[in-house]
Design brief:
Strand order of the largest sheet: 1-2-4-3-5-6-7-8
CATH superfamily of the largest domain: Alpha/Beta hydrolase fold, catalytic domain
Strand content: 15-25%
Number of strands: 36
Structural class: alpha/beta
CATH topology of the largest domain: Rossmann fold
CATH class of the largest domain: Alpha Beta
CATH architecture of the largest domain: 3-Layer(aba) Sandwich
Oligomer: single chain
Helix content: 25-40%
Number of helices: 31
Radius of gyration: 30 Å
Distance between the termini: 50 Å
Shape: globular
């Protein structure tokens, strides 16, 4: 054993201690030799008083080496903590006892060790794999010392009727077990292969070091054999005691999880959250079983510890249990005093009980231009009430998560509002995320129920999505069995009608209770779940109504999925046009006109991609279609920047409409608003130079009703440090928003949420921009896409807009290639007509692009062309600059151009 050969380990940490055992596996009085990694002596030698102790317990087949980053962080004089990382008996470099140790023995062993160490409080346990269960067993037995819990991929409960993960079933199989875990080193190698990215050779060697030779691996095999697969297993009672005891642990908890784990999947995380509802949770997307190897966990652990240091004085002090229910982060933005806004569905109920109750409330269009289905306000209200009763009988409860895989239209409207009235949390992740993104989102949200159309249920079956399955339509018995579908909305609604009058009225959910998890577009990384409360959804409704003047009785065509569900909440008649809402570019002019004619529409919601295709297909419109669109009074386009030239063409198609382009994001929608007339005025101000700060970006107008907007100035390295928001004209920085309708938190993304609200009371959007002297906000791009050239920080949108005004150019992207601070600026364009292949631009085109960019204040080093720009799936409009930057880097380094 040579500690100097273990990368990342200070040899001073390695120590051994002899411990008198009280375990039944050994017999009382037996002395066992333990190996530890312990920085306590090092802290003492340096004169540093630790704030407390992290007691770190590895699983199988790792050892204390797993916790080396915590040891290094705890040795930092800025936040000294003693870190004691144990090698369990028969594991790591601790003694091989020759005894079979069960879960209860290992929990007892750990108590013997901490007693021998004289470990007092405060102690925070840290566990992984089966070390998580053992650390929790110790915590339950030593609550007087316990100050907190940190858990990485682990489990304390196997759901009744479910089987343990396939990998563990294989390791337990009699034909495999001994060879796989002991005779050979296969179990270790398979475990090490679960790292993402792969372990470095020297790190892999360090993990293998204690287990070289079959005689050193008996503990590995015994650990696997002690997995309590069912109630008949000898260790099942001990596991049950740990699981049942967790709810009584009134201490702070942190869970750091790798979702790409074939052993401890998200269903085990869901179980732990239910037992420790106050815990802070962060899922590291892309990380797996060895999450502490895949990601930096030391930084979040010590940030979490420091939060409690600030809250509780010197050292981490014991805290009583937090409130019941899910952990909700700090609310950013002011909330109205008093009772707050009425429930989201209040206008719907009012319309049903009013004089217009028999009029159409919601409709959906067929491809032939006719209304395929519709409900009046009264029918909608009754349908929602009946389905809510049926869902409740089926087991949907307050706080249940319900994933809705239903296209916008009548069915989705009914089921959404039924779930909200029950106090269930709706999970909305549309198919526009793509199969991989959608699967990642659904698995991460771990819904209790999944309600979907046949296609979604088939995907759920193939991809293993969680949740009890409910179909929209009644399915044939064979199909129902194949897809594991329990029932249908039709059956539940019928059952609910029979229950009418037999159940008490549903209580109105707490305004601060979770209501929805809405997923972002995934255009700037993996889609994130955004948690909203009932109060915040109602505030979003009221903000839209106040900003845009949408009142009950309005009639809207919802060609943009996020707004398809807000119509009833606004008291507005709503219709979904015949289109694939997951592909906005499928909306045609005829489909839009048919939908508008069906309800004599006054309002249209459509994304920029949808509007482009409407304009491209307007030649197929008949006179009646033009007349229907000519009666529209308001058009809203959101989801991506909308060029003035596009709006000008739309204006000719909708001559009486006021055209607005709200700016916002899934976390805050809307944040600002601007009309076409205001866009033109801003452009004129920029051209004339009469208003300071006008220009260089997309003008998105002024903050909407009840919303504040500010920026954090950019530094020379392209970041936005500090927490002092400003609104002075001409200062470029990260855009911040504060509003009553802002998100509650990112779902199970504690670190992301913490970063997004690090400026107290504000949401940091990740967009960059500036104000002009007239108080208008100009968006210049994303913080992640800022280019740091030598001596200059360049935001991309201003130059991109200038380039896009050139004849023969479609869309443009400006990206940086090379190391930060010395990046070369590269312009990537698609042409009209499209180029046949991607690669360097022709000299004449490159010269035109460079000169135009120079006039916009940007020096372009290279110009490349692509047949089409890669855009996000949901909006078909947001250019993937990160992907383009990688491609441009490869091309300029001499690689084959290919397609970005």
């Amino acid at each position: 054993m040579v500690a100097a050969d273990w990368p990342g380990v200070d040899p001073e940490w390695s120590r051994e201690i002899e411990v008198s055992s009280t375990s039944d596996a050994d017999g009382r009085g037996a002395v066992r030799r333990w190996h530890l990694l312990d920085n306590g002596a090092q802290l003492s030698r340096r004169g540093l008083a630790p704030a407390g102790t992290l007691l770190c317990v590895h699983g199988n087949p790792t050892w204390s080496y797993l916790w080396r980053t915590l040891l290094a962080a705890g040795s930092d004089p800025a936040h000294p903590w003693r870190v004691v990382a144990v090698d369990q008996l028969d594991m790591g470099f601790s003694e091989r006892t020759g005894r079979f140790r069960r879960l209860a023995d290992r929990i007892n062993d750990l108590g013997d060790l901490t007693a021998a160490l004289g470990l007092g409080g405060p102690v925070v346990t840290v566990g992984h794999d089966w070390g998580g269960v053992i650390s929790l067993g110790w915590a339950l037995a030593h609550q007087e010392q316990l100050a907190g819990l940190v858990l990485t991929n682990t489990a304390v409960h196997q759901p009744p009727g479910s089987r343990i993960p396939p990998a563990l079933r294989l390791a337990l199989h009699p034909a495999v077990h001994r060879w796989g875990t002991t005779t050979s080193d296969a179990f270790l190698r398979v475990t090490h292969s679960l790292a993402h990215p792969p372990l470095a050779a020297d790190v892999r060697g360090a993990f293998m070091a204690p287990y070289r030779g079959a005689g050193r691996r008996a503990g590995v095999g015994n650990f696997v054999a002690d997995i309590p697969a069912d109630a008949s297993h000898p260790s099942f009672p001990a596991l049950g005691r740990v699981a049942e005891g967790l709810g009584g642990l009134g201490v702070p908890a942190l869970m750091l999880w790798g979702p790409r784990d074939p052993i401890f999947s998200d269903r085990y995380l869901k179980d732990l959250i239910g037992r420790l509802p106050h815990a802070k949770v962060h899922r590291f997307e892309g990380a797996g079983h060895l999450v502490s190897e895949d990601r930096d966990i030391a930084t979040p652990v010590f940030e979490w510890l420091s939060e409690h240091d600030r809250d509780s004085g010197p050292g981490l002090q014991r805290m009583d249990a937090l409130r019941d229910g899910p952990s909700l982060e700090v609310r950013a933005g002011p909330l109205d005093p008093g009772t707050g806004p009425a429930p989201l569905w209040a206008p719907l109920t009012e319309a049903a009980n009013g004089p217009a109750g028999g009029d159409t409330a919601v409709a959906e269009m067929a491809a032939d231009g006719r209304a395929a289905r519709s409900l009046s306000w009264q029918e909608l209200e009754r349908s929602i009430a009946a389905l809510a009763a049926g869902l409740q009988e089926a087991g949907v409860r307050h706080g249940s998560r319900v994933s809705l895989m239903v296209p916008p239209g009548v069915d989705l409207t009914v089921v959404l509002y039924a779930c909200l009235r029950l106090g269930a949390v709706v999970v909305v992740a549309d198919a526009g995320l793509g199969t991989r993104g959608l699967s990642r989102a659904v698995k991460g949200a771990t819904p209790d129920f999944l309600i979907g159309i046949d296609k979604a249920l088939a995907a759920a079956s193939v991809l293993g999505w969680p949740g009890r399955r409910i179909s929209v339509r009644e399915l044939p018995a064979a199909r129902r069995r194949l897809l594991a579908v329990e029932t249908s909305l039709a059956v539940l609604a019928n059952r609910g009608e029979l229950l009418s009058g037999q159940t008490p009225p549903l209580p109105v959910p707490d305004p601060h209770a979770p209501a929805a998890v809405l997923f972002t577009s995934g255009s700037t990384g993996p889609a994130k779940g955004v948690l909203y409360t009932h109060r915040q959804l109602a505030a979003m409704r009221d903000t839209l109504a106040a900003t845009l003047g949408i009142r009950p009785g309005a009639r809207l065509v919802a060609g943009f999925a996020p707004f398809a569900l807000l119509g009833p909440a606004l008291g507005a008649v709503s219709v979904t046009p015949a289109m694939d809402v997951t592909a906005p570019g499928t909306l045609t002019a005829r489909a839009l006109a048919d939908a508008a004619a069906a309800i004599d529409a006054t309002v249209v919601f459509a994304s920029p991609a949808a509007l482009r295709n409407v304009l491209a297909t307007q030649g197929g419109l008949r006179r009646a279609g033009h007349e229907a669109l000519g009666r529209v009074e308001l058009l809203l386009s959101a989801g991506a920047p909308v060029p003035e030239s596009l709006l000008a063409q739309v204006q000719r198609l909708l001559p009486l409409a006021s055209l607005h382009t709200p700016y916002g994001m899934t976390e805050v929608l809307p944040a600002t608003d601007i009309s076409l007339e205001q866009i033109r005025a801003a452009g004129a101000d920029a051209a004339a130079g009469t208003v300071a700060g006008a220009g260089n970006g997309v003008c998105v107008g002024r903050p909407v009703h009840g919303t504040r907007v500010a920026v954090i100035p950019l530094a020379a390295d392209g970041t936005a440090p500090g927490n002092d928001p400003v609104s002075e004209p001409g200062v470029t920085g990260e855009i911040l928003v504060s509003a009553p309708h802002m998100k509650e938190a990112y779902d199970r993304l504690w670190l992301t949420q913490r970063e997004s609200v690090r400026t107290a009371g504000w949401h940091r959007t990740g967009d960059v921009g500036h104000f002009d002297a007239a108080g208008r906000l100009w968006v210049e791009g994303r913080l992640a896409h800022v280019v740091t050239a030598p001596g200059a920080v360049i935001t991309p949108v201003g130059a991109e807009q200038a380039i896009e005004r050139l004849a023969g150019i479609g869309l443009a992207a400006v990206v940086g290639v090379g190391p930060p601070g010395t990046q070369a600026v590269v312009a990537i364009v698609d042409t009209v007509p499209p180029a046949r292949r991607a690669g360097p631009a022709a000299p004449q085109l490159a010269g035109r692009v460079r000169e135009t960019a120079r006039q916009a204040g940007v020096s372009v080093s290279a110009v490349l062309v692509v047949p089409s720009q890669p855009t996000d799936i949901r909006h078909n409009a947001k250019i993937d600059r990160t992907r383009l930057a990688r491609w441009a880097s490869a091309v300029l380094a001499g690689g084959r151009p290919g397609t970005p």
